[in-house]
Specification:
Blueprint lengths: L1 E6 L7 H16 L3 E6 L5 H12 L6 H25 L4 E4 L6 E3 L8 E4 L2 H8 L3 E5 L2 E3 L5 E3 L5 H11 L4 E6 L20 E3 H9 L7 H9 L4 E5 L7 E4 L11 E5 L3 E9 L4 H11 L7 E3 L6 E8 L4 H9 L2 H4 L3 E5 L2 E7 L9 H11 L6 E5 L2 E7 L3 H13 L1
Parallel strand pairs: 1-2, 1-9, 2-6, 3-6, 9-11, 10-12
Antiparallel strand pairs: 4-5, 7-8, 11-12, 13-18, 14-16, 14-17, 15-16, 18-20, 19-20
Helix pairs in contact: 1-3, 2-3, 5-7, 6-7, 8-9, 11-12
Bound molecules: aspartic acid and magnesium ion.
């Protein structure tokens, strides 16, 4: 059996943990499996390197040189892990992204994997070597090192699993699986045995940062079944796959996202084309709009309210202000003290009453809802940020406790 394992930065943060990981790899290898391991940079290495770059050029170094710098973090961890495995007496070889065949596009710092040329990986596996691959990096067509974006090592692992047709892709982290809510905040949160790709994507997008979103998208595309499990304890984790068995619970999880700002434009003219002008301009400014609400027109005016990621709030205001003369609105404002609370579950589609149960739980907790949005597998509400944790617990307990 070919097993791909990915260990995150915290799992290899120091010598003791490196040996812990080495032992877990060797356990599978000694059972007769072929093992390819993807690792991230140790602990906070990537953040530390970013700080070092800022010491040299606070205004922002070029992305090419940033990739050159950041990829060094993973080079350190693959060598150390390989040394540990060597010391424990097993054949091993560490490979940088390019050596492992990672071809990417040229978008430095957020490169996309184009393909993995697997010859070298296959050669090492045929020689019965354990292979340790540097996550998060590849090579573009100009032979320059690229990186895949923060948290990109998950994607590296999935790409190898897909192109090597691995039997198992295990993502080890410092939590032991995917929970119905953040277990540090909600004491009644429980670990899920299984979750679908779509549900996982929704939860990840809302801040349940167990798996990198791109890695889940790729796993879905190539139908790679993932197992999320603890690197520190030996126990089953959560399986992420296409179809999961129907459970009696309709709702899989509750998540909060504090990275939201709400922008309101009051007193717009109630004429055709206003929404188009606004959102077209926002797109030009590369602002990601999430929930949109337009009021029913009264007299000759209407209001439009929408949410954006907090760090794009300023950008969004600039975009709107740039067409102030065309729009002739009365008032433009931003609120950053808000939070988005969402429930996710593939089962809610065919079940009425899910929304009302969520709203009831919030009502009972005395929390006012500012905006609502729904999709086939998700219902989100926008509330005052100071009630976020209370809201998550109330909603979670209404459905899942
Ligand atoms: N070391 C990189 C980061 O911290 C990649 C990863 O951890 O997956 O973002
Ligand atoms: Mg990291």
């Amino acid at each position: 059996m070919l097993i791909v394992k990915k260990f995150g930065g915290s799992s290899v943060a120091n010598a003791e943990r490196v040996f812990n990981v080495a032992n877990r790899i060797i356990e599978d290898y000694k059972k007769g499996n072929d093992v390819i391991v993807v690792v991230s940079a140790q602990g906070d290495t990537t953040d530390d390197l970013i700080e070092k770059a800022a010491e040299i050029n606070p205004n922002g170094a070029s992305k090419r040189e940033m990739d050159m710098l950041l990829s060094a973090g993973e080079q350190i961890s693959i060598a150390l892990l390989a040394m540990a495995i060597e010391k424990l007496g097993c054949p091993v070889k560490s490979l940088l992204g390019w050596q492992a065949g990672f071809e990417t596009d040229s978008h430095h710092s957020i490169a996309r994997i184009k393909k993995v040329n697997t010859e070298r990986l296959k050669k090492e596996i045929d020689k019965k070597n354990i292979v340790i691959v540097a996550g998060f990096q590849g090579l573009n067509k100009y032979d320059d090192i690229t990186t895949l974006g923060r948290g990109g090592s998950d994607t590296s692992a999935v790409a190898i699993a897909a192109s090597m047709k691995a039997d198992l892709c295990q993502i080890y982290t410092d939590v032991d699986g995917v929970y119905t809510a953040d277990p540090r905040k909600v004491s009644t949160a429980i670990k899920m045995d299984e979750i679908s790709y779509d549900e996982m994507l929704e939860l990840a997008a809302m801040g349940a940062q167990v798996l990198n979103n791109r890695s889940v998208e790729m796993a879905k595309k190539y139908n790679v079944e993932l197992e999320v499990l603890s690197s520190l304890e030996v126990k089953p984790g959560t399986i992420v796959k296409e179809k999961v068995k129907m459970e009696k619970t309709l709702i899989k999880g509750v998540a909060k996202d504090n990275n939201v700002a709400r922008i309101s434009i009051v007193g717009l003219q109630d004429t055709p084309g206003v929404a188009f002008k606004i959102f077209n301009k926002l797109a030009q400014y590369k602002v990601n709009v999430d929930i949109i609400l337009q009021s029913v027109g009264r007299d000759t005016t209407k209001d439009i309210t929408f949410t954006v990621p907090k760090d794009q709030g300023k950008q969004a205001l600039e975009a709107i202000e740039s067409i102030k003369d065309i729009l002739e609105y009365k008032e433009l404002s931003i609120d950053e003290d808000i939070s988005k609370i969402s429930i996710v579950g593939a089962g809610m589609e065919s079940n009425p009453g899910v929304a009302s149960k969520m709203f009831e739980a919030l009502y009972d907790a005395g929390i006012n809802i500012q905006m609502i949005s729904t999709s086939e597998i998700k219902i989100s509400v926008l509330i005052d940020a100071k009630y976020a944790d209370r809201a998550v617990t109330a909603v979670h307990d209404a459905f899942l406790a």
